[in-house]
Structure formats: C-alpha cells, structure tokens
Design goal:
The complex is a heterodimer of chains A (165) and B (141). Chain A has 165 residues and is α+β, with helices and mostly antiparallel strands. Chain A is built from 2 helices and 7 strands. Chain B has 141 residues and is mainly α. Classes of the chains: A alpha+beta (165), B mainly alpha (141).
Chain lengths: 165, 141
C-alpha cells in the first residue's frame, strides 16, 4: 500500500536521507510501502555538476552516478513510515527516531549492476526498489531504473547499517 | 510303470513350484530394497503407485553441489576449494556481508526463509548444508 497516496514527496524540500545538496540524486518519492517497495524519481536536467566533464559537448549521465541514485532510492525502503508521510507530527517518538536515524549510516559494501542504455539530459529516471533481505545490521536491495518505460539499469546492492559514533 | 509316470509328473510340479518360489523371492527382494513406498507391480495385477513426488524430496548431493556454487560465487573462490572441512572465516576471511549474501541466495534458491538469528550458522560448509536441509524439511511439514 502506498502510504503517500497521490502526493509525491519532494526530497529537495523534505530531508529524509543523510546525503544532501550536490550528492542527493533522488528528487522525489512517488510510491512508498514501508519495507516492501519504493518508487523514486530523478530529473536529469543537464545542469548537474558532472555533465561539464562527462563529456564536454556530449552530456551523458555517468553510470556510477546512476548507481548512486539507485542506491539512495533503494535505502528509502529501510526508513520508517512516518519519515515520509505528511501526517507526521513531531512527537517524542519521531524526534527520538530522527536522532537515531541520523546516527545510522548505510555503508555500501557490494554492488552488482548492469547498465543497458545511456541517459541524456531532459529525461526523468524512475527507480523502483524492493528488498531482497533486510536484517538489523544490513540489507540487500534490488533496484531497477527506467526511462520512458525502458529499462536502463538493474542492480542489487548490499549495505551495512551501523551507528555513527 | 505307474510309479515312473507319477514321479515324472511330480518332477514337473516340483519344478514349477520352485519357479514360482523363485519369482516370489525376487519380488520380495525388490520390494525390500526400494526405499520408497512404491508397490511392486505383479504381472496381470494393477496397483496404485504411492511414491512421493520427486519435488518434495531434497537430494543431499544436489544441495551440496548447489551450495558449493553459491559459496564460491559470493566469496569469489574456486568451487574445488570448498570442502566438508571448510570454515569460511578462518579459511577465506568471510565477513558478515558475505554471509548475508549467501543467506539471501539460499533463500531464493530453495524458497525458504532464514531468520537473522541463523546467520551465525553460516560459518562452515557442513553447517550451511544442514541449515538448508533442516529449514526446507521444516517448511514441507
């Protein structure tokens, strides 16, 4: 069940991930079923910092940036429901969870990804993430990326979840 | 003369009796040697086959082969180096992330669920085989 209903969550306005600014590669979340499925989107505008060098006069979204976007999208599955729903109220539980979450860092430990098509500016990437296995200290996620209905990349990512000291 | 004919007759009957006995013995032997509940067909008599379908039974050798492939793939080692005495941490420096990946692949392969508490059991080839078979059989019950 999509807890967001018909409302997409703009991640440029609502901070739910630890990454920010130039290293945030997910623009919004359109579907979130906690622990089960997430659909997130990234608009490839062409204004991003990496296009200057990749490549001059021939802007192509770098594969490792797409991989990072997919990992960021995938880790949203691990978040509790109230981090994304607009009905969240700053209760003691929420504040405690927020502080706790700020201490929990997902370290990427393994990736297995295939790229099928290149992506150029002017497109929106739709990333769908589902969990393969989640335990308290780690998670393996499967994420697929589509542009205009076509699969452009697919991968499995393993993250270790540790408390930041 | 009468005695001879009767002897001849009795020889024939003895022979056929022996033959029948032999056939019965062979049938019994076959029935005893097969481990399944399959009943042995007798000529002319049709009986229901009550053997378990192959899908429900986990062949240990196949499990060993498959798990060896999974372990070698995750730990990026040669399959031949995975032996019954293999201990993953001591012999190959396996970490908890690799153990989780092995766990996830086993779950997918055998359509079973391995609890987080069983993760520490993924330390040796033997323990992984035992865990997989136990969970599979538990699920089938």
């Amino acid at each position: 069940m999509n807890v967001l209903g018909n409302n997409a969550l703009d991640l440029r306005k609502t901070k739910i991930l630890l990454v920010t600014d130039s290293f945030l590669f997910v623009d919004r979340v359109t579907y979130f079923d906690p622990g089960k499925k997430v659909i997130a989107e990234k608009d490839v505008t062409g204004e991003e910092w990496f296009f200057k060098g990749h490549f001059p006069g021939n802007p192509i979204l770098p594969g490792h940036i797409l991989a990072e976007a997919m990992i960021q999208a995938g880790t949203i599955i691990l978040l509790p429901e109230h981090f994304l729903t607009k009905t969240m109220i700053q209760t003691d539980t929420f504040l405690r969870d927020l502080a706790d979450r700020a201490k929990t860092v997902n370290y990427l430990t393994a990736t297995k990804i295939r790229f099928f098509k290149i992506t150029r500016p002017g497109k929106t990437i739709i990333m769908t993430g589902t969990p393969i296995k989640v335990i308290s200290s780690a998670a393996i996620m499967h994420v697929e990326a589509h542009v205009d209905g076509e699969l452009i990349a697919r991968g499995d990512f393993t993250v270790a979840r540790t408390k930041n000291k | 003369m009468k005695k001879i004919t009767s002897l001849k007759k009795s020889k024939k009957t003895v022979k056929s009796l022996d033959k029948k006995k032999k056939i019965k013995k062979e049938i019994k032997k076959k029935a005893m040697s097969t481990k399944s509940t399959k009943t042995v067909k007798r000529p002319g008599k049709k009986k229901k086959v009550t053997a378990l379908p192959v899908k429900n039974m986990l062949d240990k050798k196949e499990v060993e082969k498959k798990l060896r492939t999974i372990i070698a793939k995750v730990m990026e080692i040669d399959e031949k180096t995975v032996t019954p005495k293999t201990r993953f941490i001591e012999d190959f420096g396996m970490d908890s992330m690799m153990a989780l990946e092995i766990l996830a692949m086993i779950e997918k392969e055998y359509n079973i669920e391995i609890a987080e508490e069983d993760l520490p059991k993924i330390v040796s080839y033997d323990s992984v085989i035992k865990l997989t078979i136990d969970l599979f059989n538990k699920k089938k019950k």
